[in-house]
Amino acid sequence: xxxxxxxxxxxxxxxxxxxxxxxxxxxxxxxxxxxxxxxxxxxxxxxxxxxxxxxxxxxxxxxxxxxxxxxxxxxxxxxxxxxxxxxxxxxxxxxxxxxxxxxxxxxxxxxxxxxxxxxxxxxxxxxxxxxxx
Length: 133
Prior knowledge:
Blueprint: E1 2-11, E2 17-23, E3 33-35, H1 42-54, E4 63-72, E5 79-88, E6 102-109, H2 120-131
Parallel strand pairs: 1-5
Antiparallel strand pairs: 1-3, 2-6, 4-5
């Protein structure tokens, strides 16, 4: 089984809703973020990915580690993800704008059961970790 090292952002708003995205050609809701390139740290990769996907400018210091989780990859067969999850705040002067391979975004209420189309990583690891904060 192949392993992908990824970094993901948890943007939680004042209503305790989590920002999730859906890539073009998929039905699964995932977190913004993506694969680490070369010698990037997870935080550096996440800053780059959030800019590419949502046009949100973050700095490494804007990120707080939530944890590292392993789950089945949603969009790649026979693959698991080793996900470095971070909590991030949306800068007050910026709004997410879908870009790159992102087809859609929405705010997922953390106080409700997630939709069936929510990624395993979110459903079984990230949402429970956020709920315990």
